[in-house]
From TrEMBL:
GO molecular function: catalytic activity
Database matches in PROSITE patterns: HIT_2
Domain of life per record: Bacteria
The protein's name in its UniProt record: HIT domain-containing protein
Organism this protein belongs to: Reticulibacter mediterranei
Pfam families xref list: HIT
Length: 211
């Protein structure tokens, strides 16, 4: 882990650069909309301080992260009638080198354990920290049934991208062609405000339920 809590060259460390995407902040994390979403509802959970990946985020943050993941599950269930798929590149294949967990509202998407491509069934965040400390790079997938860690192999990576993430995105939005980040960013101009409006309604409902 870098000892600096922020990095001047990291867009996720510069709140002013992501301010329009922020949906929620807690003591150590933010939930934001992805700036180039695969689908409407595509969110990111990220630490406010600079960590390379979730394999370096301290254990003292785990309960807070767990609660945010639970909240995203509830949001997707209520507003997209869909379970959540969590995805992290690790440091492997990242485009922004700041820990961030993708959250997708994907229905009917499950990794088949018999494929045998994963290296570890993850039981806690400690597994990510232990792997990263000893093995380094990884990528991470969590569907409604399993949390899985994969070693940084390109064939495995693209297999999971193709069979899980792209299949989920296609089922969600009906678009079968692969879109570049630039194309997704353009499409996101319509999707991001819809996601933000649904999140605002979700938060208001939560407050009403609490009262």
């Amino acid at each position: 882990m870098n000892d600096d809590t922020t990095q001047t060259n990291c867009v996720f460390c510069q709140r002013s650069k992501i301010d329009t995407y922020i949906l929620k902040e807690t003591p150590h994390f933010r939930i934001i909309t992805d700036y180039a979403p695969l689908v409407e509802g595509h969110l990111l959970i990220m630490p406010q301080e600079h960590y390379a990946c979730y394999g370096t985020v301290p254990a003292s943050f785990d309960a807070e992260l767990h609660e945010l993941k639970r909240e995203v599950r509830t949001f997707f269930d209520r507003f997209y009638a869909s379970p959540v798929v969590f995805w992290e590149h690790g440091v492997f294949r990242q485009t922004v080198f700041h820990a961030h967990l993708h959250c997708f509202p994907f229905k009917g998407i499950t990794y088949n354990l018999t494929d045998g491509l994963h290296d570890l069934v993850v039981s806690s965040q400690d597994d990510l920290r232990t792997w990263y400390a000893s093995q380094g790079h990884y990528f991470y997938l969590e569907d409604p049934h399993h949390a899985l860690l994969f070693s940084p192999d390109m064939d495995r990576y693209f297999h999971v991208i193709r069979t899980i993430l792209w299949t989920g995105a296609t089922a969600h939005n009906g678009k079968t062609e692969w879109r570049s980040p630039q194309q997704r960013q353009e499409a996101g101009k319509a999707m991001i405000p819809l996601t933000a409006a649904r999140w605002k309604q979700f938060q208001q409902q939560g407050e009403a339920h609490a009262q």
